[in-house]
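Input (G protein-coupled receptor):
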Amino acid sequence: AVDGASHIMFNWIMAAFSLLSNILLVVLVRKVNVVSMGSYKILIYISAVMDVVIALSNAIVVPVNIHMGKYSFVVFGVGTSSWPALQGLISIYVFDLLFYQTFALLSFHFLYRYVVLIGSSSSLSQLSIWHWAAAGIVFEIIFNAIMAFFISHYEPRSDWRADVRLVYEMNSFYGINMTKPFGHFHVVYAEVDDGGSMKFNWPIVIYTLSILGLISMLGAVMIICSIGVVRMMKSLTSEMQTIVPLAISFTPVGFLVLLPLTGLQFGALGNYLMSISTIYPAIDPWLMIVCINR
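Output:
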């Protein structure tokens, strides 16, 4: 398992790097002429702020561990597992909602940039910055409402048939006794009785796959817009801005959701997948700097 102190230190390093990188991005945007990109710089400022907020959430609010059991996984905070259960649970809610903003902002980035580049050939290019701002606000309200609805069903389970190995590893790796209240989500896809009969918890399966489906739709928007931008700019810069988040943000989340459905015990692998995903807010501004330079 990821050592708690090392996990916290890693997230603080990523948060500091994100803060410095995004400050550099903002300084360069203010100095470089980006008139040709319309009001794109406003979106860059918003993304820079959100990158820092998300990185600080990773470091301060709750550096998250995800431990995988048989047909289930437990989401809990390294620094908040000892908090009262309600406060620990709220901290994970905050983390999750901020974490998913990465996907929403990226898709909005790609769509806006694509529309600006195709210019007058699209009716969307006639929209003012206020139209885009209104659309962004509405999109964020709907997106967060959907995510909050799904996440709110990931309550701590007290009625589940104990996964003996999961209970043992949680206590052995993290010193957490799962029979006592602590701030966490326990996403249980299915339970297996003593006779080996398995019963799926279909609402949770559907909620979780719906989250993955929503994120996949945002990823598809990125890919489609990226292909269009590459054709117009004749540059691989946009491809890198697509490949990197897909590799270190979208893909780890997909594995986190899908691997437990196999019924195999992946244990602490989830911790490393979460650590990979926390890197993105730190390197996102550098991808943006390359794009602006182009």
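Residues 202-233 form the longest helix (32 residues).
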